[in-house]
Amino acid sequence: MSRDIALAKQEATRILDIVRRPADAITREERERITRDTAENFANHINKGFLQYRKSVTESGGFAVTEWVGSGSIMRDALDREYIDMLGGFGLYSHGMRHPRIVEAVKAQLDRSPQYSQEMLDPLRAQLAKVLAALTPGDIQYGFFANSGTEAIEGALKLAKFYTGKSGFVSMLKGFHGKTLGALSVMGKSVFREPLLPLLGGVQFAPFGDADAVERILASAQAVGAGIAAVIAEPIQGEAGAVVPPDDFWPRLREICTKYGVLLIADEVQTGFGRTGTVFGVDHWDVAPDIMCFGKALGGGVVPMSAFMSTPEIWKVMEPNPFMHTTTTGGNPLACASALAGIEVMLDEDLPGQAKAKGEYMLERLHDLQERYPGIFREIRGKGLLIGMDFLDGETGYKVAAGLFARNVLTAGTLTNSECIRIEPALNTPMELLDEVLNRLEDVLRHIRA
Ligand SMILES: Cc1ncc(COP(=O)(O)O)c(C=O)c1O
To answer: How far does residue 218's CA lie from ligand 1's centre (Å)?
Structure first.
């Protein structure tokens, strides 16, 4: 596209004019135009590839489904069609969309100071670190804030190298930690890594849940003097499809890491803040990691926010030169207000307790459907409201995902990747809405069987 400054101004003003108007002052023609423009802009300026993968385009008939207003577990599109959100932004919307108390805190901070000066001390960041220190297990006390989960992982890897003076890592097959070069180095999936090799050297992978395999790697590394800085894992693998490890896995990881003098990093980006039925995933097994990474729901679903945190002993390497790891916008006052309100809501509404009870209910009802509709599911598993449904093949999975989408239920699952569909709704989703989703799912299964 050639340079056209007048067009840039005109297009910015056109959409802002709509954004600033109340919903009932936007005409049907304008809504249809937003829908058409969005698909066209994706094709011309974001990535054409996405359009083939999203059910919101491929399965929506005349108008691509273009998100417009979210509230709790309901998303309405630009044409005012209503969808029940069972995807929860892959763990972002644990509090639901636009939780009023989180929005209120963010608006109040917006009127005070949205970003920090970079020179004065900023109160909300310091207070949030204190709150998280009180919330986290073990001796975790210091934190660094960033904007994405991936950045939290990058920071954690740096801290582990910095503290131990070693450069190797042990990570898990099928593990997901983000897609920047450092995070990608510990990701356990070839599709995203292979075209970009070589990545960070000295990373070895073990099957998730196999503590003996981790120990074998650490023992061999010690025998040959290959320094391992840390073992990194998700408490429950999210992206891999809500894979819950055996109960002895995390306690044994803790034991093994201590034995070999290696740090233990828990990637709680997806499992943190109530998602699996406890505040943190590692709480299921009472394990205190050396470094914890947070993201997604930490920001309360309103402002992006992430963090890596560690103990005073480990953090001391960051003290002589606190500029060893910095960011201009990470932990900004808006994000901190959002996170603080998110934590307050999580505790007041007992989101972990809700996730546990609703997760158990969903798993029971889903297993019942699995039994009554044989030949569709391979396995249904999960903890709390992090649930994975494995299908016998991708084609069946896509039929279910597309069938749910046609019945106005949002889930993951694409044309090329539907063997496992995750159910990951807001933790405070009303029971009636969960029942409605289960009814619609049964309707889809009935159609597939027919
Ligand atoms: C466990 C885990 N770690 C890290 C990330 C990366 O977070 P982000 O997408 O916010 O960069 C994700 C994202 O799905 C994740 O699930």
So the answer is: 26
Answer yes or no: is 69 within a domain.
no
36 part of a folded domain: no
pLDDT for 319 equals 97
- CB of 413 closer than 6 angstroms to any ligand 1 atom: no
The protein residue whose alpha carbon is closest to atom 9 in ligand 1 is: 149
Q: Same structural domain for residues 275 and 190?
A: yes
DSSP, collapsed to helix, strand or coil, labels residue 268 as coil
Distance 150 CA to ligand 1 centre (A): 6
Query: Does residue 280 share a domain with residue 381?
Result: no
CA of 148 from ligand 1 middle (Å) equals 7
Q: What is the CATH number of the domain that holds 275?
A: 3.40.640.10
Contact call for residues 81 and 405 (beta carbons, < 8 A): no
DSSP assignments along 202-253, one per residue: SEEEE-TT-HHHHHHHHHHHHHHT--EEEEEE-SSBTTTTSBPPPTTHHHHH
8: left (phi over 0), alpha (psi -120 to 50) or beta: alpha
Please write the tens of the pLDDT for every residue from 32-56.
999 999 999 999 999 998 888 777 7
- As given in the structure block, the two tokens for residue 95 are 């509090």
Please indicate, yes or no, whether the overall pTM of this predicted structure exceeds 0.90. yes
* Cα of 231 vs its chain's centroid, Å: 20
d(CA 102, CA 99): 5
Burial of residue 173 (CB within 10 Å: 0-12, 13-18, 19+) is middle
Query: 206 and 128 share a domain?
Result: yes
Q: pLDDT value at position 111?
A: 97
pLDDT of residue 416: 65
Non-local (6+) Cβ contacts of 374 within 8 A are: none
Q: What residues have CB less than 8 Å from 400, skipping those under 6 apart?
A: 376, 389, 391, 413, 418, 421, 441, 444, 445, 448
Q: Is 295 in the pocket of ligand 1 (CB under 6 A)?
A: yes
Q: Given the structure tokens 């320094």, which residue do they identify?
A: 227
The best mutation among 93, 150, 181, 293 to test binding of ligand 1, ranked by most ligand atoms within 8 Å of the C-beta, falls on 150
Task: Locate the ligand 1 atom nearest the alpha carbon of residue 271 and give its number.
Answer: 1
Please state the domain count of the chain.
2
Which residue carries 């084609």 as its tokens? 395
Mapped onto helix, strand or coil, the DSSP state of residue 269 is: coil
Average pLDDT of the segment spanning 234-261: 97
Q: Sign of the CA dihedral 298, 303, 105, 101?
A: negative
